[in-house]
Amino acid sequence: MRVFQIEGDWGFDNLNLSERPEPKPGPGDVVIRMRMASLNARDLIVPERGYGRATGELPLIPISDGVGEIVEIGAGVTRVAVGDRVCPTYFQNWTSGEPSPERFASALGGPNDGVMAELVCLSQEGVVKVPEYLSDAEAATLPCAALTAWSAVVTHGQTRAGDRILVQGTGGVALFAVAFAKMHGAHVTVISSSDDKLEKVRSMGADQTINYRETEDWARASRPITFDRGGFDNIIELGGAKTLPLSLRAVRPGGTLSMIGVLSGLNIEASLGLIVARQVRLQGVTVGHRDGFEAMLAAMALHGTRPVLGKTFAFEDLRPALEHVRKGGHFGKTLIKF
Predict the structure, then answer these.
(1) Residue 33, strand partner residues
(2) What average pLDDT does the segment 107-131 reach?
(3) CATH number at residue 196
(4) How far is CA 207 from the centre of its chain?
(5) Residue closest to 210 by CA, chosen among 225, 232, 230
(6) Which domain holds residue 46?
(7) Quick check: 7 and 58 in contact, CB under 8 A?
(8) Tens-place pLDDT, residues 191-232
(9) Are 1 and 19 in contact (CB under 8 A)?
(10) Least buried of 21, 145, 158, 209, by fewest C-beta within 10 Å?
(11) Quick one: 227 and 115 in the same domain?
């Protein structure tokens, strides 16, 4: 079968279209014929071994998110059946409960082989059935970006009707966060550097928008939005080093900063006093578990929530697709069609 794999040495120059034997399921395993995949920011980091030893060993099949159809099952499989359409979970060993080193070491697309293979063999515990109303392209976007947003807004954020939420940017996680926050009755503010993208998120239901290039001190600019509570209840923090100091000024006393992205850098200079004296919670968010995934799918089906889709590339064009993501400027998830 055809696969894309990083082989020989790390680096994008060593990401090649190759061949591997077709997998056979062992007890409790399923074989999935992949239909679509979608790309995340981490897929740009993995080929460069950006997570160090936690990236895995070579050869490595990259890409974490996708959807396919089960074509073969091993002995003892009861959760799913041949013909079911499923998404692999991002963390294969994290079905519920608290995270652990073992659970975090089971991520697809590094350190475990990912979904850029025509056939993928996984444990039945590491797949979820996809609602019928979602297309293959829509379903392929869910395992990483959607569940990360769900964990930030719902599982950890416990968003309630009337909450004030601020979402940074208009990437994959951000757009899902807008959708889930509105699903739960929150007032949503989005910041971005693009007026065109801000117009699009307003059409998705965003209540307020701020262009942070035109208004660099967006923390001050947002005060009229949250004057009745002294700041946002939850800020979906995707920027990292450059945005966190502003987020600390914009969050309310007792509020939450859902730390997800580090797009503007890893190392921060911020006042710890703003955290301690105002009892702000910094909540790291790394995707989530299978139970959360299934709860998210149930809520999406109830509300008819659909992901925002971007450009689609052919299987053979993985490298151009990754370059498309690297350049930025896109709106909606970038997809790979098998």
Answers:
(1) 69, 119
(2) 98
(3) 3.40.50.720
(4) 23
(5) 225
(6) 2-144+288-337
(7) yes
(8) 999 999 999 999 999 999 999 999 999 999 999 999 999 999
(9) yes
(10) 21
(11) no
Q: Which amino acid is at 151?
A: S
Spatial CA neighbour of 43 closest among 333, 331, 337, 239: 333
> Whole-angstrom Cα distance, residue 165 to residue 220?
15
Find the CATH number of the domain harbouring 127. Answer: 3.90.180.10
Q: What is the DSSP string of 120-137?
A: EEEEGGGEEEPPTTS-HH
Prediction pTM value: 0.95
Tokens standing for residue 90? 């991002």
Q: For residues 168 and 219, what is the distance between their CA atoms, to the nearest angstrom? A: 12
Lay out the sheet containing 187-192: strands in order across. Answer: 208-211, 187-192, 164-168, 232-237, 251-259, 281-284
Answer for the pair 81, 73: CB distance below 8 angstroms, yes or no: yes
Residues 318 and 149: their CA atoms lie apart, in Å, by 25
The sign of the CA dihedral 194, 204, 134, 170 is positive
Beta bridge partners of 54: none
Check whether residue 20 and residue 130 sit in a common domain: yes
Residue type, 16: N
